[in-house]
Amino acid sequence: ALTEKLSRLVKQIRGQARITEANVQDMLREVRMALLEADVALPVVRDFIARVKDKALGQEVVGSLTPGQALVGIIHRELAATMGEGVADVNLATQPPAVILMAGLQGAGKTTTTAKLAKWLIERRKKKVLTVSGDVYRPAAIEQLRTVTKQAGAEWFPSSPDQKPLDIARAALDHARKHYFDVLIVDTAGRLAIDEAMMQEIRALHAELKPVETLFVVDAMQGQDAVNTARAFKEALPLTGIVLTKLDGDSRGGAALSVRAVTGAPIKFAGVSEKIDGLELFDAERHAGRILGMGDIVALVEQVTAGVDLQQAQKLAAKVKSGGFDLEDFLEQIRQMKKMGGLSSLLDKLPAQLAAKAGDADLDRAEKDIRRKEGIICSMTPEERRRPELIKASRKRRIAAGAGVQVQEVNRLLKEFEQMQAMMKKMKGGGLMKMMKRLGGMK
Ligand code: GDP
Ligand code: MG
C-alpha cells in the first residue's frame, strides 16, 4: 500500500520541471512513513527527511525523469550515503594475528557470524583463521562454536565453562601467535538485555586483546530497540563495524540506518541466511532500495540520472569524431536505450499493482518503436550495418521481410540514421544523451 501511494505521488508531480516545497511535501510524508514502517528510529527519520528536503528543493529534474522520480533518486542516494559509501571491507591491517572481537546481545548471531566470517576470510582473503568462544555461561555455546567452526573449515581453540573469559582470550591469542594464524575471531557471551557486568567483561576483553576490528552484531529484526542496544555498546566499546544479521527475514532492515546513525560505525557485513555461507559484504545502495521498498525503480532512476554509461558515451563520441559511426553502433545505442529503460520500462519496474495503472499509450508506442528498430537492424547483414549505403531496393525488401515490417519502415530508419549521423558530427559529447532519447522516440 505504501509503494502504491508513493508511486501515485510520483505520477502526480509529473510534468513539473523542478522539485518544489509544494510537490515534495506529500511525497516526503510518505517516505517518512516508509522509514518508520521499516523500523528506523524516529529521531533518525526526522534528521534524514530534513536532509533530503534540503538537497532536493529547487533541484532541476534531469532528462526524462519527473520530479517525483528525481526525488526518489535523491532519497535513495541520501539513504545509501547515510548508511555508508560503497562497500565496506574488513580491516586486517595489523601485525598478525589480527583480532576480531564480536559484540552484541544474546541471539543476535555472534556465534553464527564468527563462523561465517571465518569461512569468508578463508575463502575470500586466503587467511588462516582461529576461533575461540568466551561464552562461559552457556556450555552449549562453546560446543556450538566448535561445530560451526568445523563447518567453516577454520580451527577452533578449546575453552571451557570453568575458565575466565580473559584467560581464554590470552591463551587463544598466544596460540594464534605461536601457530601463525592470520586472524583470531573471539566470540563472546551476550545477555538478553544490556547489563553492566556483561559490558565490563567485554571492555576487559577489548583492553586485553586490542582487536583491530570490534564488530557489533545486531539482529535486523530488532527494529526500534536496536537503537538502545547500539548506544549501550557504542558507549562501552570503540566499535569499528556493524554486522546486520537475519536480513533474510521479512524486516525491511531499517535498523541499519538507526544503528549506523547511533554508532557512526560502518556496516560491514550482512547475514543473509542461517547457513555458514550466508554472509555478504554490506551493500548500502542495495539496502537503501530495500528500506524504501521501491523495487527496481531506484536502480533505474540512478541509471537515467547518471546519464547511463559514460564510458559507452565517450567511446561513441570518439567514433563519431573519426566518422566511424555505423548501424552497428546505432543498434548498440538502441539497446543501451532499452537497458536504461526509457520511461515505460521505468514504470514497468514499479511494483506490479502500480505498473498496471501506469499504462500510457504514448510510452507503449515508444517502446514498440524501439523494438521494431532493433528488429530491422538485426535483419541486416553485418556488412550492411557497417555500410548502410549498400542497402538498395532489393536488400530493403529482404530486410523488411526478415523483420516483419513494411519497406517504408526500413526507409524511415535509414533516414533517421542518416540524420543522426549528420547531427552527431556537429555535436559534442554532451548532446549524446539527447540523441539517445531521440533514438528511443521519447524526446
Ligand atoms: P548469539 O547468541 O549472538 O551467538 O547468536 P547465534 O549465533 O547463536 O544465533 C542465534 C540464532 O540466529 C541462531 O538460530 C542462528 O542460526 C540464527 N541466525 C544468525 N544469523 C542469522 C542470519 O543471518 N539469518 C538467519 N535466518 N538466522 C540467523
Ligand atoms: Mg553465541
From TrEMBL:
A GO term for molecular function: GTP binding
GO cellular component: signal recognition particle
Protein name, per record: Signal recognition particle protein
Organism this protein belongs to: Tepidimonas fonticaldi
Notes on the domains: Composed of three domains: the N-terminal N domain, which is responsible for interactions with the ribosome, the central G domain, which binds GTP, and the C-terminal M domain, which binds the RNA and the signal sequence of the RNC.
Residues where GTP binds: 104-111, 187-191, 245-248
Gene3D superfamilies referenced in this protein's UniProt entry, alphabetically: P-loop containing nucleotide triphosphate hydrolases, Signal recognition particle SRP54, nucleotide-binding domain, Signal recognition particle, SRP54 subunit, M-domain
Catalytic reactions on record: GTP + H2O = GDP + phosphate + H(+)
Keywords (A to Z) from UniProt: Cytoplasm, GTP-binding, Hydrolase, Nucleotide-binding, Ribonucleoprotein, RNA-binding, Signal recognition particle
InterPro entries linked to this entry: AAA+_ATPase, P-loop_NTPase, Signal_recog_part_SRP54_M_sf, Signal_recog_particl_SRP54_hlx, Signal_recog_particle_SRP54_M, SRP, SRP54, SRP54_GTPase_dom
PROSITE patterns: SRP54
Residue ranges constituting the SRP54-type proteins GTP-binding domain according to the UniProt record: 266-279
Gene Ontology biological process: SRP-dependent cotranslational protein targeting to membrane
Family: Belongs to the GTP-binding SRP family. SRP54 subfamily.
Main localization (coarse): cytoplasm
